[in-house]
């Protein structure tokens, strides 16, 4: 077992990488440089969303997923869901204690619930695996399986963010979108009927099937079920099909596969996701420095929830699952499950606030402080996790 100091150094290196790339993005976003201004970040974010991230998830997941690994990883989606549910409960406690304005409740809840399960684990895990004498064995095998775990984590996080968190924030953010033309209170928003009175009158003139169809369409518009099928989700589904269907796997995956050029090309494109996303983080943090109006107590509440109580909950749940034989004893797998509880809020929350047109500046402030202090959280907690599982 490595000494505690060696574990600390190992866990600190990926954090340094993140800080260096983030600082470059921060510099590029300065007014005097303006290489990563608001428009540039918007376009780059679209490329990451539609091209880089799906390619990364697809290539890593297809390469590592098999029936055996999928059976072993069954607890991963459940664990990610636990991070969102526990984070939501902690966020609600923060709201009750700090009493923020009603239009910021959804933002605070989202920041506590949705973690950055994308590029953060994808940076941390390879850096940890590269260390000689690390707790996770052979660096090549560690990186292969670790990136598969991280890809599945990223895919599940994307699904939960664009279904659970998106709609939670929509309901609580007093958004004029998808409700009424003017801003209403939370109470009034909750009273918006799924079917108008005119539709109810028309229902008497149509059959039962048409009634069911209308209700389903109306519910879909309110909940925005289409967000489930984000590009990353579609990529994960395709990757699972390729990885699990033997003829497809033999055709595309592996050094001797006839169509391995497809896998190599997708992997090459996906490798751009991590640096691009990290540069965007640095550029967005500049906006946070220029924003104000967020209560300090709410910011502190989010920090305490994400970096103290959520990791403690993760340790209890993951180690409890191990004691009950729900997960394997593999240290790397347990490490990835634990990492999901210590990452900072998801950067896609900024995209969601832009869609709602509410809380953009406040979101930048929260992201600024959470990512600034993530350097501590992502060093101290992973050090403890490696000691715990190894």
The CATH class name reads: Mainly Alpha
Helix proportion range: over 70%
Largest sheet: none
The N- and C-terminal alpha carbons lie at a distance of 7 Å
Low-confidence stretches: 175-200
The CATH architecture can be named as Up-down Bundle
Secondary structure category: mainly alpha
Number of helices: 18
Please give a handful of descriptors for the protein shown:
transmembrane, 18 helices, 0% strand, Na+/H+ antiporter like fold, 390 residues, globular, single chain
Walk me through this protein's architecture.
The structure is a single chain. The chain has one domain (about 5-175, about 230-390): Up-down Bundle (Na+/H+ antiporter like fold), CATH 1.20.1530. It is about 75% helix and about 0% strand. The chain is built from 18 helices and no strands. The protein has helices at about 5-30, 40-65, 65-70, 75-100, 105-115, 120-130, 140-170, 185-190, 195-205, 210-225, 230-245, 245-250, 260-270, 275-290, 295-325, 330-340, 350-355, 360-390.
